[in-house]
UniProtKB/TrEMBL annotation:
It comes from Salix koriyanagi. InterPro entries: NTF2-like_dom_sf (IPR032710), Pathogen-related_defense (IPR053218). Gene3D superfamilies: 3.10.450.50. The lineage of its organism: Eukaryota, Viridiplantae, Streptophyta, Embryophyta, Tracheophyta. It comes from the Eukaryota. This is PATHOGENESIS-RELATED FAMILY PROTEIN. Transmembrane segments: none annotated.
Length: 238
């Protein structure tokens, strides 16, 4: 997650240069990751040696995430194999890039759930890519940083553990900002080809860890209701 701007980025490829001259960006120009990079460097728990497998995997994931969230034309994606690529969450049916877009793209893809609708404190079916972007960038004005905690296997089947975090300094879905750190931990599998293009992605994570942290704040309608008691499955598998 980033703001719009120009510059160089030391963790992500395919942002600048001649190869991106005709790239169609969601907000009209390449995103600026200065704020979230600062958050990452100040809050990370691991500092991987330059050139290490862990650093390479971390930068691959950051690059992939940047393209998924910020490039509007599939032909501009350079980190994935457009013909073979699939994505799945928590063992759900794998989907193609086009199917990801139909699910709402961006955050909505990562927050798919099998919960009954009455228990969905955040329902991706009711959100657009734009409304989701506004909701999360408002809650996390400094961004939602990512670090790779451990790499269990290298290419072609990369298995790693990750941590996302950000400071909830803005409201979210009717809940006031808390100023606290909100985290999301999980595991992921990236399958890559001989050119290090991603052909398959699987994520395993509990969306309730993220949403629970975002709904701890007081209700902005003046009530004292809390998110957790309203949803008995909030901390379960989403």
């Amino acid at each position: 997650m980033a703001t719009s701007g120009v510059g160089e980025d030391k963790y992500r490829k395919f942002l600048y240069g001649e190869g991106e001259r005709d790239t169609k960006w969601r907000f009209g120009s390449p995103p600026n990751y200065d704020a979230v990079n600062k958050l990452f460097e100040e809050g990370r728990t691991k500092v991987w040696p330059p050139g290490s497998l862990e650093e390479k995997v971390q930068n691959l994931v950051k690059t992939w995430e940047m393209e998924m969230f910020n490039k509007t034309c599939f032909d501009d994606y350079k980190s994935v194999d457009l013909k073979k690529y699939t994505f799945s969450l928590n063992g759900m049916k794998p989907v193609t890039l086009e199917e990801m877009r139909k699910l709402g793209g961006g955050y909505n893809t990562f927050l798919q759930t099998t919960l009954p609708e009455k228990f969905r404190v955040y329902n991706p079916a009711d959100e657009t890519e734009e409304s989701a972007h506004v909701a999360f960038t408002t809650a996390f004005p400094r961004g939602f940083a990512l670090e790779v905690l451990q790499v269990y296997s290298g290419p072609p089947v990369i298995v790693y553990k990750f941590r996302h975090w950000g400071y909830m300094e803005g409201p979210f879905k009717g809940h006031a900002a808390t100023g606290e750190v909100v985290e999301l931990h999980g595991m992921s599998i990236f399958e890559v080809d001989e050119h290090m293009k991603v052909v398959k992605v699987e994520f395993f994570m509990d969306r309730g860890e993220l949403l629970g942290g975002l709904m701890k704040g007081a209700s902005l309608d003046g009530s004292a209701a809390e998110a957790a008691p309203a949803c008995p499955f909030l901390t379960g598998t989403g």
